[in-house]
Design goal:
single chain; alpha/beta; Aldehyde Dehydrogenase, Chain A, domain 1; Aldehyde Dehydrogenase, Chain A, domain 2; seven-stranded mixed sheet; six-stranded mixed sheet; 38% helix; globular; binds 1,4-dihydronicotinamide adenine dinucleotide; binds gamma-amino-butanoic acid; binds sodium ion
């Protein structure tokens, strides 16, 4: 299919169903990571805009507002949004690619997931109508108790840059499905498609204030959103340090948060794999998809020593075959990382690995044929020690580090040797062994004979320093619901706890 050429639309903040200039009129440059050029500007919100947006959300959520709609009514809007996103798929994919740097076909596939997600939460919104009041059986006949599931209220959604519109959707779709009014703060490194979601909501007539979109810097727009007293909850995906800042600020207001943070996930490969090429490809995909910028990347390869040499030889051949190019080119399989900051961070982690004694088996530098753009070769690092930074720290770039093992116990120990706990993969023909590893992995996600496939129905999230809470599936809807208990005294008899005074 022809990849459309696109200019960045000029947008303002999306507040109360319309485009509004920031109070301080600030704007931020949009940089295409493949060319390092400024290709547009986005509005930069500050605390004043956050307050205006939160007030709009509270009005929208208020009595007879979005929060009082039925799930069926909300489902209509979510399906209309899905249909509009599908209609604009090629344009949205191009905007995603020139803003984020991911290959166009990956961006287009993300847009397909966005459509599916909105449709999925439309179904869940509809189903909520018959599930939002359920009786709880008691041991006493004198009382009747029900549980109501009602919208939590006004929610703050703060998203990262690695899957811009998809991570926005993972939060906006369930929040709207639950009947919450939302204030979204996308990453300043890739905000374009989230702003286009605002235009789509405007076109489908989403009630004003149900979704507000504030682009801007984390400390100027994100931080005031977290600390705003009239925001009932924060859902965040991003780095560990920022997650800690958000949790600390929210704690001052006893404000609930869900944190989807980083990872340093393992992929354990045994010598009984039936097909080495299939195993090698999953190992590549698990670390180099999305230009290596996946929170759940299986960036630590733990390979059985009996197959290590043969496996690494084959891994090298596959890696050399990865097409690194402008992400708008057909069959590009690796584009640039998101920004100069990320480019320098990844190269620094690689040079530290070298200085600490590891071997750069392949890559580690800018590809020779790409003089501009934040491109880094797919990199494989061996002779890694568990004391090294490259073993311990999330790179968030196309860098795979490798260690070997002899026994299952050693493999499990290496796999869990991380402060994170997001994903873990095991490749082996022995499904009993895979079951043992599934139980032993300290993670929220386990892949068996694959790595990274991600669907909108099952729960997504981790433990340890990867954060807490679950997104996707029914789990994400629960994030945005208040569970209310209602207990009614149905007896005609007096409660008779106190001695009654003399009869009147
Ligand atoms: N787990 C994941 O999915 C992601 C992990 N990362 C990791 O984080 C590192 C830094 O990347 P960044 O984009 O700077 O991530 P970040 O965590 O700083 O930013 C993520 C989001 O949080 C916002 N934010 C930043 N500071 C904030 C604050 N004080 N209060 C409220 N919101 C705030 C940002 O504007 C953005 O929307 C990356 O190198 C990578 O290692 C980054 C993006 C996604
Ligand atoms: N495949 C989606 C992973 C989500 C994330 O990297 O944040
Ligand atoms: Na960008």
């Amino acid at each position: 299919m022809a990849i459309p050429n696109m200019q960045i639309p000029s947008r303002q903040l999306f507040i109360d169903g319309e485009w509004r200039e920031p109070v301080k009129k600030n704007r931020l440059p949009v940089i295409n990571p493949a060319t390092e050029e400024i290709i547009g500007y986005i509005p930069a919100a500050t605390a004043e805009d956050v307050d205006i947006a939160v007030k709009a959300a509270r009005r929208a959520h208020g009595r007879n507002g979005w929060g009082s709609t039925t799930g069926a009514q909300r489902a209509k809007f979510l399906r209309a949004i899905a249909a509009k996103v599908l209609e604009k798929r090629p344009e949205l994919a191009t905007l995603e690619t020139i803003d984020n740097g991911k290959p166009w076909f990956e961006a287009a596939s993300d847009i397909d997931d966005v459509v599916a997600c909105f449709e999925y939460y439309a179904d869940l919104a509809e189903a909520l109508d018959s599930k939002n009041k359920t009786e709880v059986k008691l041991h006493l006949d004198s009382f009747k108790t029900h549980v109501y599931k009602e919208p939590l209220g006004v929610v703050g959604l703060i998203t990262p840059w690695n899957y811009p519109l998809l991570m926005t959707t993972w939060k906006v779709a369930p929040a709207l499905a639950a009947g919450c009014a939302a204030v979204l703060k996308p990453s300043e490194l890739a905000s374009i498609t989230s702003l286009e979601l605002g235009e789509i909501c405007r076109e489908v007539g989403l009630p004003p204030g149900a979704l507000n979109i504030l682009t801007g810097l984390g400390h100027e727009a994100g931080s005031p959103l977290v600390s705003h007293p009239d925001v009932d909850k924060i859902a965040f995906t991003g780095s560990g340090p920022t997650g800690i800042k958000i949790m600390t600020a929210a704690a001052q207001l006893v404000k609930p948060v869900t944190l989807e943070l980083g990872g340093k996930s393992p992929i354990v490969v045994f010598d009984d794999i039936p097909n080495i090429d299939i195993a090698v490809e999953w190992t590549l995909f698990g670390c180099f998809w999305t230009n290596g910028q996946i929170c759940s990347a299986t960036s630590r390869l733990i390979i059985q020593d009996t197959i290590a040499s043969q496996f690494l030889d084959r891994l090298l051949e596959w890696t050399k075959n990865i097409k690194i190019s402008d992400p708008l080119e057909e069959d590009c399989k690796l584009g640039p990382v998101i920004s100069r900051g990320q480019y320098e961070k990844v190269l620094k982690l690689i040079s530290t690995a070298k200085n600490e004694g590891a071997t750069i088996l392949y890559g580690g530098e800018r590809p020779q044929h790409l003089k501009k753009g934040y491109y880094i070769q797919p990199t494989i690092i061996t002779d890694v020690d568990t004391s090294m930074e490259i073993w311990k720290e999330e790179v968030f770039g196309p860098v795979l580090c490798v260690k070997t093992f002899k026994t299952e116990e050693e493999a499990i120990e290496l796999a869990n040797d991380t402060k994170y706990g997001l994903g873990a993969a095991i490749l082996s023909k022995d499904l009993d062994r895979c079951e043992r590893f599934t139980k032993a992995f300290q993670s929220g996600i386990v892949w068996i004979n694959c790595s990274q496939p991600c669907f909108w129905q099952p729960p997504w999230g981790g433990k340890k320093r990867s954060g807490f809470g679950r997104e996707l599936g029914e789990w994400s809807l629960e994030n945005y619901l208040n569970i209310k208990q209602v207990t009614q005294y149905v007896s005609d008899e007096p409660w008779a706890f106190y001695k009654s005074p003399s009869k009147l």
